[in-house]
């Protein structure tokens, strides 16, 4: 069958004249009446292209119509129409206006929503509804015709504005735009772990015939299955993501949005879209039909959709989606705390999991000490199952608790930031031997702007009533490194992590009057107009240092 509009001018006028005569009769349906009316505006209507996928935008409650013409043929000639809803369910139907009577229609890939109406009339002109459908599944209508006929496709969305794709072809000998699905298009779940799910599916015949231009792509999300690739892309965009249609799956080069992460490994492309409802992963794995999805969350239900994609046309076909729930995470390991022993715990901010420490009291009074090294940490302490302390900590924090011998304490730690946090923990029955030295009211370092020169700066810090050791360190930094340096500082690290050349001096001092426990130091031998990072470390009886808040000072450029 061919689309020849020059040869159709005369038959068209004949059809229109027949329609004028026929239209004075009572209409059988409103759609048929609308069909006849639209014939008068045929030249101003939308013509559906043959052999090309057309995107149709629908406005709510406003029907949209497309037309195509089939010419007379001596033999029955097939044609197919595939409609793919990209969001909400739609209603669509096919009407035919023909001058002769022989017509045969056959519908494929339908479900209970699909109704087929095939009618044969011996009359000079007839209008028939041959197919209608309501839903959001991908539907393909296959018809056969041997007579000249004008077809109308009518689309309607009653929920909201949306878009669909329509594909008409009258040439069934030159291959398929859409990749073929196997006879059994289901996805099988063959393995489930705490953080992985293994899937397999039967090969598409298109993969076996055109291996170089066909590939499989997997979509993973926590919301629901998608019946088409364009439906999945619409959902991602509606969540705030700017995602060009099928761009990720066709491997075309483009700039990733801030909410997207691309991962290339082992000839696989993974794109993670950060949307409000969670992550949506797109993974293209070539022609492999078995895949293990990694890095899932335990005890979470995921939905999996496999699409077979034609890389040359971006057309795709969807397997029947499936879902699986990952296994529950095993009980977290509990680390035993021992009297006086200090341990440092690193907490994963992304997983937001609790890290558990257990301690069985050998004395009635115990003291838990925490030193925050990096990030923000939530501490939760229970005694025999009852909460005795729960708060976010900063800097140094002590919890002095009373109970009975052999009481069981459980300490749970969790990062309250997305980045990793770390904290040092100690439990001890010896209140008179604290883990950390006696601290001043403030751990800030002060600099004196008026005392700055081109090669020296003067800093000051508070001390305590007990004699302690203080060590000063300096490091030269660039202006664009200041924020990163201050954010990445490990407040638990001591001078052992510093280079020997960074050490300025160490000194002892104290004052029984806290108001006068202040010391100053002038650091010389600096470069003009240069930024320096200064640190002061305080050492107590236990030898564990406490780091003051770092101070950045710039020497004068001209003196």
UniProtKB/TrEMBL annotation:
List the molecular function annotations (GO) for this entry: heparin binding
A biological process (GO) annotation for this entry?
nervous system development
Concerning InterPro entries, the annotation shows:
FN3_dom, FN3_sf, Ig-like_fold, NDNF, NDNF_C, NDNF_Fn(III)_1, NDNF_N
Q: Where in the cell is it found?
A: Secreted
Which SUPFAM superfamilies does the UniProt entry name for this protein? Fibronectin type III
Listed name of the protein: Protein NDNF
Q: Which range is the signal sequence, renumbered to this chain?
A: 1-21
* Domain (Fibronectin type-III) ranges: 179-316, 437-545
Please verify whether the record's keywords include Repeat: yes
Q: Which Pfam families match?
A: NDNF (PF10179), NDNF_C (PF19433), NDNF_N (PF24354)
Function of the molecule: Secretory protein that plays a role in various cellular processes. Acts as a chemorepellent acting on gonadotropin-releasing hormone (GnRH) expressing neurons regulating their migration to the hypothalamus. Also promotes neuron migration, growth and survival as well as neurite outgrowth and is involved in the development of the olfactory system. May also act through the regulation of growth factors activity and downstream signaling. Also regulates extracellular matrix assembly and cell adhesiveness.
Q: Which gene is this protein's source?
A: Ndnf_0
Q: Which UniProt keywords apply?
A: Glycoprotein, Neurogenesis, Repeat, Secreted, Signal
* GO CC terms: extracellular region
């Amino acid at each position: 069958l061919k689309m020849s509009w020059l040869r159709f001018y005369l038959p068209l006028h004949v059809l229109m004249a027949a329609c004028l005569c026929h239209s004075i009769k009572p209409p059988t349906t409103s759609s048929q009446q609308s069909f006849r009316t639209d014939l008068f505006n045929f030249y101003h209507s939308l013509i559906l292209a043959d052999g090309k996928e057309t995107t149709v935008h629908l406005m709510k409650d406003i029907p949209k119509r497309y037309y195509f013409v089939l010419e007379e043929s001596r033999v029955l000639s097939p044609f197919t129409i595939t409609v793919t809803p990209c969001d909400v369910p739609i209603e669509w139907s096919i009407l035919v206006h023909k001058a002769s009577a022989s017509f045969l229609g056959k519908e494929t890939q339908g479900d209970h929503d699909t109704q087929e109406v095939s009618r044969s009339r011996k009359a000079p002109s007839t209008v028939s509804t041959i197919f209608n459908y309501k839903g959001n599944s991908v539907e393909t209508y296959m018809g056969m015709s041997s007579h000249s006929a004008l077809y109308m496709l009518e689309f309607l969305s009653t929920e909201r504005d949306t878009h669909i794709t329509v594909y008409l072809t009258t040439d069934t000998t030159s291959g398929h735009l859409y990749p073929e699905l196997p006879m059994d298009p289901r996805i099988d779940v063959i393995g489930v772990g705490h953080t992985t799910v293994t899937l397999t599916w039967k090969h598409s015949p298109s993969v076996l015939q055109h291996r170089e231009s066909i590939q499989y792509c997997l979509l993973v999300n926590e919301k629901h299955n998608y019946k088409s690739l364009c439906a999945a892309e619409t959902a991602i965009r509606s969540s705030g993501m700017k995602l060009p249609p099928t761009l990720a799956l066709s491997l075309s080069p483009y700039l990733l949005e801030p909410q997207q992460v691309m991962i290339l490994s082992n000839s696989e492309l993974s794109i993670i879209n950060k949307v409000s409802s969670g992550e949506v992963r797109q993974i293209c794995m070539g022609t492999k039909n078995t895949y293990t999805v990694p890095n899932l969350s335990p005890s979470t239900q995921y939905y999996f959709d496999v699409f077979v994609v034609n890389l040359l046309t971006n057309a795709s076909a969807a397997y029947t989606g499936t879902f699986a729930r990952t296994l529950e995470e095993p009980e977290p390991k509990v680390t035993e705390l021992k009297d006086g022993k200090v341990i440092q715990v690193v907490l994963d901010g992304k997983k937001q999991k609790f890290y558990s420490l257990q301690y069985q009291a050998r004395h009635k009074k115990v003291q838990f000490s925490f030193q925050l090294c990096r990030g923000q940490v939530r501490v939760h302490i229970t005694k025999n199952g009852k909460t005795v302390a729960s708060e976010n900590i900063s800097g140094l924090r002590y919890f002095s608790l009373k109970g009975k011998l052999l009481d069981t304490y459980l300490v749970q730690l969790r990062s309250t930031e997305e980045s990793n946090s770390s904290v040092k923990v100690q439990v001890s029955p010896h209140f008179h031997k604290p883990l950390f030295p006696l601290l001043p009211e403030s751990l800030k370092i002060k600099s004196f702007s008026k005392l700055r020169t081109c090669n020296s700066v003067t800093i000051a810090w508070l001390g305590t009533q007990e004699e302690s050791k203080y060590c000063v360190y300096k490091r030269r930094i660039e202006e664009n490194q200041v924020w990163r340096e201050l954010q990445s500082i490990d407040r638990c690290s001591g001078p052992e992590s510093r280079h020997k050349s960074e050490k300025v001096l160490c000194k002892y001092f104290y004052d029984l009057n806290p108001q006068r426990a202040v010391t100053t130091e002038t650091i010389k031998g600096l470069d003009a107009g240069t930024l320096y990072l200064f640190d002061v470390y305080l050492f107590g009886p236990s030898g564990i240092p406490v780091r003051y808040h770092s101070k950045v000072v710039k020497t004068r450029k001209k003196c």
